[in-house]
Amino acid sequence: MDLRLNSKHEKLLERVRAFLVEHGHRSVPTIPGERPGPRLLAWQKLLLEHGYAGRTVPRDYGGYGAEPDVMEQHLITEEFTRAGVALGIGNQGISMLVPTLLELGTEEQKHAYIPATLRGDLVWCQGYSEPGAGSDLASLQTRGVEDGEDIVVNGQKIWTSTAHEADMIFCLVRTEPDAPKHAGISYLLFSMKSPGVTIRPLKTMTGRAEFNEVFFTDVRVPRHQIVGQRGDGWKVANATLKHERGYLANPGLLTQRYAELTRLLQDEGVDDPVLLDRLMQLQGRVLAQQCHGMRLLTCAERREDPGLAGLITKLQGCEVRHQLAILATDALEESGLLVAGSPHARANGLWQERAMFDLGLIIGGGTAQIQKNIIAERGLGMPREPKAAV
Amino acid sequence: MEFALSEAQRQMQDSLRSALTRACPLARVRDVADRGLARDDAVWAVVCELGVPALLVPEAHGGLGLSLLDAAIAAEELGRRAAPVPFLGSAVLATIALREAASAEQQAQWLPRIATGEAVVGVALCEALAGAGAGVQLRDERLHGSSCFVIDAAQAEAYLLAAADGSLYLVSAEAPGLHRVPLLSIDATRPLSELHLDGVVAQRLPGSDARTLRRLRDAAWVINAADTLGAGWAMIDQSVAFAHDRKQFGRAIGTFQAVKHMCAEMASELEITRAIVWYAAHAFDEKPEVLSLYAAHAKALLGDAGQFVARTATEVHGGMGITDDLGLHHWYKRIGLNRQLYGGPGWARRIAAVEQGWARI
User: Fold this and answer.
1) For B309, how many CA atoms within 13 A lie in the half-sphere containing its CB?
2) Is the distance from CB of A182 to CB of A133 less than 8 angstroms?
3) Domain with A216 in it
4) For the residues A194-198, what does the mean pLDDT come to?
5) Looking at A78, A79, A244, A260, which residue is catalytic?
6) Could you tell me if B252 lies within 8 Å of chain A, comparing CB atoms?
7) How much of chain A exceeds pLDDT 70, in percent?
8) Are residues A370 and A255 in the same domain?
9) Interchain proximity B268–A372, CB inside 8 Å
10) Residue A41 belongs to a domain
11) pLDDT tens across A66-124, in order?
């Protein structure tokens, strides 16, 4: 155990802090589901120039070209989070598609999409889940049939956040209907403005439409828009999901939420011992996950497989995040019922909305129950469930 | 930054684990429990051979001069085998008290003999560490009163006590006026006693004060937590193995999601706490300013996660889980003691709140 930073990391930290002091006031947060406006695009440009966005993406693809160093990325994220400064554009294009293309895309795909995505000019949505393919994602039925130089796509996707604002979609499509279900899928990139794409907003319990349904009717996609090999889409998608799970459980974000919660309780003058005990329970879990994050960071630096320790973060992180919001709404008593726009609403109804949105995170990106299957089967080596007779 | 055990620590972990697997099978634990022994002498010999009581003793006194994190690694392995040997009292708390607050003569008298395992010092600090004051007072240079939940007492040559004046004292186990009453607790692997003192001659540890007591409490909490980490994983491993072997409805019960999820929940709830146990232990030596907060949370988290694992692992085993034949209950009880001793999770969280100005004691 040595928690001191080396001189390279100390110097980076100094640079980050100086940057935040000089430029932090210009930061613009990403609003989920909305296209970046001019101020956010300008902020993103500044971050790209300084290497706080696209840090390890090669310069050829519009990144900063730094050597991968997980500790550097951690320090940057932590300092920005602590300063309450937005780390540029956060969307699925940047967090999921860019790393996937870097790993598995062709040169043409990398040049065509990575620079514009990093700049924020190109907005993506993710076409994975379908009404009939949720936890059993590999059973997806959206069809891609070859016709000349094109693949013709028909079917429906759901839980597509940002679809109405997106330029492009990265989409899983069944191209080999006779192959075993994991082997018959291709990973396609195509324009959301293509003829035959229809979008229907999906309103959730928060009252907002954070998601959409997307329908494809004879959408023509050139064959070279496949990432990886035709039929290898499951492998490509798993590279992406790996990035998503890391994204959903950011211990720095939990720390920030916990700090917000304590400010709320102080402002409200909460001194109820039962609530205080619940607050301390959650603090313990947040601190544990912070330490756990450092443990995983060292594993990543050493390129060691963290094993079971790496499989529990999504389950633990999403649960605590939800519980933080629930405690806030309890502490607000009746006022905690009031939503945005109501007289007497606290924090504009934010905590109720978070409690509901964060419940969605427990379900999304692999439900808690799927996470438990993964922990049991991959982490503990427990036997798989026998396949149901088809 | 390196948030991991060192190579030397991993080696120690491996050698302790394999030595204890050989030396401390369930039969040893059962024997101690059935016969009401204070410890298992064969296991104790192995533990001493491996230098466990010497871990925290400074090198100048024949010890290994290592950190609380090293002691926590040892505690995890002792917990994994439910090893019936004195550790927390003599090798951790008494050793730290002597190291940090004793005179040179006191150190020279006790530390070398604790390091070899030749001497065991019992620890009577429960009232002081759990925030219940002290049952012992100093009057006319002698100690009067009583102290409950004394650990490592049965074979102790001396006892470490806290008196109402906030100081620590050593008394000889043979001292006139000292009377020990064994208690019968759920955990037979680490017996508890009560001490009655009627004018017992005592030696004060000259450097002892409120800070010493706080550090002893925090160290005890970290070591209790680490013991539960090991004991809990022993229960999970046994549950997973049982779920592989046990067949019902023509299938291994481990293929049923209901059973699988019980195991996943145990693993998830327990393993998420490992890093904070390491961090709290590390803080004892390297970051004393945050020690109390992290030690309190480690104690509370492992108290709760341990209890969840103990009952769930028992349930995974079905009816056999509650039998003496299976023996799983020795770990259930071990975890139970770790949870309750020196304050339960609620008390530890209260201390965490006090540390941050959220509450007063």
Assistant:
1) 36
2) no
3) 124-231
4) 98
5) A244
6) yes
7) 97
8) yes
9) yes
10) yes
11) 998 888 988 998 899 888 898 888 888 998 899 999 999 999 999 999 999 999 999 99
